[in-house]
UniProtKB/TrEMBL annotation:
Any single Pfam family the record assigns to this protein: Thioredoxin_16
Keywords, alphabetical: Coiled coil, Cytoplasm, Protein biosynthesis
Source organism per UniProt: Phlebotomus kandelakii
A biological process from GO: translation
Subcellular localization, as worded in the UniProt entry: Cytoplasm
Main location: cytoplasm
Protein name (Swiss-Prot/TrEMBL): AIMP2 thioredoxin-like domain-containing protein
Any one GO CC term of the record: cytoplasm
InterPro entries linked: AIMP2, AIMP2_thioredoxin
Coiled coil ranges: 48-75
Length: 267
């Protein structure tokens, strides 16, 4: 290769003399940093020990306060009756895709939660499926006409297959699993543990896979396995029954019949 002509040559730069000299604190031979770290370490440990002592003292005071409150409670004329559950919410409007029937409403009606159901068909539905007709006839046969009013509208083109509107100017939410969560928080349905939410999510996932039969079958298997592994509650049984029965309607098979009978017996 050819040699390049050097462009910059080595040269010395004069240090300015109008600034004061700064001591190099990173000098390995300097013990300044070592002493500083040791002093800070001692201070941190001292502060931490002092904080721990204050926390222990505060906890002792809280325990003593709790003991005093418990002793006072025994002498007060308090009501010992359990909290009464709230009534079924009135003026519920549920818009449902006819392909995913809310069978949880049927089971709630059988358990006498105290509500009446009225059905309407939106203009987006040209013809109501036979399963939806049977469901409406069965649930209306159980409706006494008294209690809270629930309106079910068969409708297509919804962002989700199940939409709930509470009251005229109330809240709106999606999913049969969330509807069951809503009733559980009102005290109308029983819940056993926080793990119920996982099973409710599995039921929602099963219904969401309606367009993929293979994945929906796998989701049904996972739901049944999870159902057998842990103790379930009323809210989980309602959501599981509805999801599996819709799965049976779509698959036209009897794979989940035994599980459905078991759930019906419990509910």
């Amino acid at each position: 290769m050819y040699n390049l002509k050097p462009i910059v040559t080595d040269f010395e730069v004069d240090k300015p003399r109008n600034m004061y000299a700064v001591k190099e604190i990173h000098n390995p031979t300097d013990t300044f940093l070592t002493k500083l770290e040791e002093s800070l370490k001692v201070e941190k440990e001292g502060d931490l020990n002092e904080l721990v002592e204050k926390q222990e003292l505060l906890l002792d005071k809280l325990k003593e306060l709790k003991r005093q409150l418990v002793s006072l409670q025994d002498g007060l004329p308090l009501c010992r009756k359990p909290a009464q559950p709230r009534s079924f919410p009135d003026d519920l409007v549920i818009s449902v895709d006819p392909s995913t029937i809310p069978y949880s409403l049927l089971l709630m009606q059988r358990s006498s939660l105290g509500f009446s159901v009225t059905f309407y068909t939106h203009s987006s539905v040209a013809k109501l499926p036979e399963e939806a007709k049977k469901f409406a006839e069965e649930i209306q046969g159980l409706t006494s006409g008294s209690g809270s009013r629930v309106t079910v509208i068969w409708r297509l083109g919804l962002p989700a297959s199940f939409q709930v509107s509470v009251g005229v100017q109330g809240s709106c939410f999606w999913g049969e699993d969330n509807f069951i969560r809503y009733l559980t928080r009102l005290g109308l349905l029983k819940k056993s543990s926080d793990s119920d939410d996982l099973l409710l999510d599995l039921t929602h996932h099963l219904l969401a896979l309606a367009d993929d039969k293979k994945e929906q079958t796998r989701a049904a298997d996972r739901l049944i396995i999870a159902l057998k592994k842990q103790k379930t509650s009323q809210s989980v049984d309602l959501a599981t029954y509805s999801a599996l029965r819709n799965f049976r309607n779509a698959s036209k098979g009897g794979k989940v019949d035994a599980v459905l009978k078991e759930l019906e017996a419990r509910l």
